[in-house]
# Entry
Amino acid sequence: MATILKGAEVVEALNAEIIKEAEALRAEGIEPTLAILRVGERGDDISYEKGVTKRAEKVNVAIRNVILPVDVSQDDLVDAIENLNADSKVHGVLMFRPLPGHLDEDYVRNKLDPAKDIDGITDASTVGVFTGVNSGFAPCTPSACMEILEHFDVSIKGKNAVVVGRSLVVGKPAAMMLLERQATVTIAHSKTTDLPSVVRAADIVIACVGRAEMITADYLRTGQVVIDVGINVTEEGALVGDVDFSAAEGIVDFITPVPGGVGTVTTSVNLKHVVSAARNQNK
Amino acid sequence: MATILKGAEVVEALNAEIIKEAEALRAEGIEPTLAILRVGERGDDISYEKGVTKRAEKVNVAIRNVILPVDVSQDDLVDAIENLNADSKVHGVLMFRPLPGHLDEDYVRNKLDPAKDIDGITDASTVGVFTGVNSGFAPCTPSACMEILEHFDVSIKGKNAVVVGRSLVVGKPAAMMLLERQATVTIAHSKTTDLPSVVRAADIVIACVGRAEMITADYLRTGQVVIDVGINVTEEGALVGDVDFSAAEGIVDFITPVPGGVGTVTTSVNLKHVVSAARNQNK
# Structure
């Protein structure tokens, strides 16, 4: 039976790290602060906001809420971003997306100061991830995958890693981050020929396709480490990953659960980035 | 015996395409123009400059030479770039690198207008390659690899491609471009475990490590298409690729030669980008 890589354990370690760093910052008179910028009242956004706020309280990171009406003009939104950029008391900004359709998201997101872009949404952060130059921050989900691998001492160097999925927020940056850690990285996707054997060949599997339980027993073998990024709701209303957990559990060596895996770590990564940003801005 | 994928054939086809587009532009009163910006008198730069100039003449693209002294100040170099950005008669800019050590290359290269960045050196172009959004231009060498695959009708979709090497100018963008064309892409490198079998598993091999003839018979199998990006000088003064050509020739199905392969196509890609840029700027 596989060892379950529980997100809670990683969160605990990350939180301890963040608390320590937040304390050090406070001792210097700096209150690490995350601004959450929300446009409108989308349920998903509000629910993630609640989660971050609760976690932030735990780790002594202050939250500043900026809530704009769903019909905010682009100029007003950009003004709000520029105010946050200019505010030395705000160290990181989390802006929920997608933005309402009347706003040019590509234009707006790049108005954020990359130094405060703790969720890796600006082009400057993207360049940092692609080039492996540690400027800016990587998006939180692939960062959470790396935190999990690191926390559980999974050796990456020289290993074969496969990333199933090639989105800009998870798949591609995850591939670059694994490459940076010296893995041999394969990016697979819906057009891959014989996906089961491609996945089976890998030592480390990052599943980020967004299709409920599509990675079944025939994709897997003993010895593998499986990081399941997927969060899918079944017809019965259950929350499941991209991996068929019950099948995988009996085959692979290590696997993250859904829920309770990557998702829960993401929030702490956001907050870790905030204290790092606060430190960078107060060197 | 492998079929040799001769660069000259691709160049001929590309040149015909460029000539046609250059003619169409001239008919509209637009003279497609490439500015070559050189700092100092490096032999490599001067030799590439000569090659581009000769090829440009052939395809009716005008060249504007901007030559600055090796001790040029950063301000003067940036001024030169900004003048080219502002000049509506210049459509593309090729700036030789590396720049002399007293210049901040990262700062300087990003002063170039991405619309004129026909060699893909700005961060904006890098983001375009990584995201697969066709803004800006990809660097010329990986673009040349794609032109060769396309010219010889190599099917890419669903194929396993391995890129050996992960540089920012060749390996990483080549991987992204293959991914964009629906290949399953593996990025391998010096830390890869059992590199021969990783390479052997691929249908398409892009060799861009920069080590003379390191890819030998045991990395190869019948059925493969091999694109050799390497240009290495042996102790005997011979020009060889990253692939042991004489061994590969008897094993794989298709292979590019060195010299006369990718390198020669690169120059025409530069010029193709110039006419595309001229078209984009005059829509």
Q: What stands out?
A: Residues 79 and 111 of chain A are 9 Å apart (CA to CA). The two ends of chain A are 47 Å apart (CA to CA). Chain A touches chain B through 28 residues (CB under 8 Å).
